[in-house]
Amino acid sequence: MDVLYGVHSVEEALRAGRRRFDHVLVARERHDERIAGLVVACKQAGVRVRQESREQLTQLAGTAAHQGVVAMVRPQEMLAIEDLFEPLMPGAARLVLALDGVEDPQNLGALLRVADGAGVDGVVLTERRSAPLSPVAVKTSAGAAEHLRIARVVNLVRALEELKEQNLWVIGLDERGTEDYDRFDFTGNCVLVLGREGAGLHDLVKRTCDHLLRIPMAGGVSSLNVSTAGAVVLYEAARQRRAKAVGDAAPSASKAKKQKGLGS
């Protein structure tokens, strides 16, 4: 069984409906509307709820940051790379995030939260030398990990090549990149690849990329933390996609208005 802790994490796991819950433990010391609502949601989902002391929850979670809620759940099922070939929205351009050895669980969790907010179609993680989808990562993601399609792969280069065969451009983020991220067109099918903390992309991964982008830095530091850099670029991609969707819809609306005027 996996341990989930934190109100957001448990709430979102319940809401997503992908995990099989064994039971949820709630601290006896907590008596508030948020916990009461969570208990009601558990009962509606047929999940057992027990009260325990905060100390017992801390021992089970391995941290005091559990907010008075700990859940025992089945491990989240990982997908294969083929499961990410199709977009979430039929006919829409695909946006995939691939992580090349991100090892800090808090960075992983922060990136998953950003990916969910930016509307990515899926996330690719490597099986080796990368942070697991641990309780810390899930807690940091504020439950976003429960809503994302996440694939684990043995060989990231091979996975990227397979995505290329599905007509996705592979875009690496690197401080030595030749193009500024905000000058790149993200409105098509693309995979954004982020590298390891400190070391960046592996050489083979870098050579697999179709484009290498950089974030211009005006100060004395040469790069951003990987989760911050990911947020900057993913939300630029989301902004471009929203702008394109509005632009594509405007001519259709104008045409319909003209047709209505002609028929009146």
Can you tell me about this structure?
- Strand 2 (21-27), helix 2 (33-44) and strand 3 form a beta-alpha-beta unit.
- The protein folds into two domains: 2-73, 60s Ribosomal Protein L30, Chain: A (2-Layer Sandwich); 81-247, Alpha/beta knot, CATH 3.40.1280.10.
- The chain has a seven-stranded parallel β-sheet. A four-stranded mixed β-sheet has the order 1-4-2-3.
- The protein is an alpha/beta fold and 264 residues long.
- The chain contains eight helices and eleven strands.
- The model has no long low-confidence stretch (mean pLDDT 91).
- Helix 4 runs parallel beside helix 8 (226-263).
Produce a short descriptive summary.
With 264 residues, the protein is of the alpha/beta class.
Give the helices and strands, then pairings:
Layout: E1 2-5, H1 7-16, E2 21-27, H2 33-44, E3 48-52, H3 54-61, E4 69-73, E5 95-99, H4 105-118, E6 122-126, H5 135-140, E7 150-153, H6 156-165, E8 169-173, E9 179-180, E10 190-194, H7 203-208, E11 211-214, H8 226-263
Parallel strand pairs: 2-3, 5-6, 5-10, 6-7, 8-10, 8-11, 9-11
Antiparallel strand pairs: 1-4, 2-4
Helix pairs in contact: 1-2, 4-8
